[in-house]
Amino acid sequence: MTTKSAADRTTVLVCITCRTPTDPDDTPRKGLALADATRIALGDEIDVDVKHVRCLGNCNRGLSAAIRRDNAWTYVFGHLDATRDGPTLIAGARLFASSTDGLMPWRGRPDPLKKGLIARVPPIDFDGEPAELT
Ligand code: FES
Q: Which of 14, 15, 32 to mutate to test the pocket of ligand 1 (most atoms within 8 A of CB)?
């Protein structure tokens, strides 16, 4: 079992209110199924946190989840699948946890986290980048 300090925890936030456009408007929604699948994929390890969230503002491109880490970028993903992407999210979170530059590596990232990337948001203490492209 792996443990990390609170400062370097990686968290998967799964939107439990997401549904696909053809799903009924009632519950349980497929987002909750994705959250359950993500917890199952985590297994007995506690190296990653999995939390529920109600709406990431990505409703038209659900199912949705975010992966974040302190002092690192935050990634929002869409077009996830409840039957496929529990393990995808855990693999992405573990890959992100292993990075040393605060970015989720592209190489080795599961395909749904490449094709389904909606946004990446810099850390709170981000100083910005120079306007000139190099
Ligand atoms: S309901 Fe899931 S992003 Fe809005």
A: 15
Instruction: Give the position of tokens 């989840």.
Output: 65
Supply the DSSP string of 4-18, one letter for each residue: --GGG-EEEEEESS-
Residue 42 CA to ligand 1 centre (angstroms): 22
Q: What is the pLDDT of residues 74-113, one digit of tens each?
A: 999 999 999 999 999 999 999 999 999 999 999 999 999 9
Q: Does domain 6-121 have CATH number 3.30.70.1450?
A: no
Q: Assess whether the C-beta atom of 16 lies below 6 angstroms from ligand 1.
A: no
> What does the domain layout of the chain look like in residue ranges?
6-121
34 lines ligand 1 (CB under 6 A): no
